[in-house]
Amino acid sequence: MPEPLTEADRSHPAGVDMDELIARAASILVRARTLVVLTGAGVSKESGIPTFREAQTGLWARYDPQELATRQAFRRDPELVWRWYQFRRSLVAAARPNPAHRALAELERFLPRVIVLTQNIDGFHQAAGSSDVVELHGSIGRSRCFADCRGEPTLIDLAALPGGDAVPPRCPYCHDYLRPDVVWFGEPLPQAALQRAWLVSAQCDVMMVVGTSGVVYPAAALPRIAREAGNAVVEVNPEPGGITPLADVFLQGPAGTVLPILVRMLGGLSES
Ligand code: OAD
Questions:
Q1: Residue nearest atom 14 in ligand 1 by C-alpha distance
Q2: Which of ligand 1's atoms lies nearest the C-alpha of 69?
Q3: Has 101 been annotated as catalytic?
Q4: Domain count, the chain
Q5: Shared-domain flag, residues 209 and 86
Q6: Helical axes 255-271 vs 18-29, angle rounded to 10°
């Protein structure tokens, strides 16, 4: 068990410059045997993927995502919801992991165990090389039968379906619609993912929270679980938010800038 955090670790007087804060965060991370990183849409912002609550762009600007990402919306207009996800798939397909994703993957070079709990559905953490990623809200890259007719989830490979222009495509087993394998509002999170997230949040030494507004539960409860278990919390976000009061160190800046500096400093500490 690494030595406990000192009060100096936890306190940082206002006005301390960013490099000093990042150095302080690095000195906390370097002692972690298990680092858990909770990420949200902000970590993919610099890949060009809109965050969940900023205005939707172009054709979809008039739709509120929270109105489209529900079972009721899909039942009401399956074609509209499927096309929205096809649009978002096209954004992900045209984008790449950014320096923030790559920096998080590089943490595995310096720390014994790094677990990424992501609310994102773009698969960029895995693409950047993170080896232990828990997808709390599923993945836009997967599709499944709306009825989960062969058990939950009944994943269906779109590429293996016979040609055809049905929108949404149909399940080859039961002929119900296919849907994206993502968590919609009002739906439970995948049980195994949630159980593991709760467990590692309580058992880690440090949780770093990157790019989430911390407004959607149960994911938003994880930093408090970490804090109440006595673990250190570091936050990276250009804006303070609901999680900031829980943070021992708040690194106010874009993840694509802050995380590469943090990893460089961590590397220096690990070699010293
Ligand atoms: P939000 O859109 O709610 O919040 C994005 C966060 O990223 C905000 O706190 C921004 O300040 C921050 N941010 C913006 N640019 C950033 C940057 N360059 N680097 C770091 N942070 C940046 O997205 P989430 O918090 O991920 O759930 O939303 C959580 C969940 O709410 C989503 O997974 C989705 C949504 O409803 C479901 O779809 C079930």
A1: 42
A2: 38
A3: no
A4: 2
A5: no
A6: 50
Please report the beta strands in 150-228, taking only residues with DSSP state E, as ranges in sequence order.
155-156, 178-182, 206-210
The answer to whether 206 and 187 have CB atoms below 8 angstroms apart is no
Q: Which ligand 1 atom sits closest to the C-alpha of 211? A: 21
Q: Which residues pair with 209 in a beta bridge?
A: 38, 235
Domain that holds residue 88: 50-94+142-182
Task: Note whether 241 and 266 are same-domain residues.
Answer: yes
**Domain containing residue 22: CATH number:** 3.40.50.1220
Shared domain for 240 and 133, answered yes or no, is yes
Among candidate residues 12, 101, 137, 175, the one labeled active-site is 137
What is the residue-level pLDDT of the chain in tens, covering all 272 positions?
445 555 554 444 455 689 999 999 999 999 999 999 999 999 999 999 988 777 666 667 777 888 899 999 999 999 999 999 999 999 999 999 999 999 999 999 999 999 999 999 999 999 999 999 999 999 999 999 999 999 999 999 999 998 878 899 999 999 999 999 999 999 999 999 999 999 999 999 999 999 999 999 999 999 999 999 999 999 999 999 999 999 999 999 999 999 999 999 999 988 77
Residue 237 and residue 114 share a domain: yes
Give me 82's structure tokens: 């499927």
100 CA: nearest ligand 1 atom = 19
Q: Is 41 helix (H, G, I), strand (E, B) or coil?
A: coil
Pocket around ligand 1 at a 6 A CB cut-off: 40-43, 45-46, 51-53, 69, 119, 137, 183, 185, 211-213, 215-216, 236-239, 241, 254-256
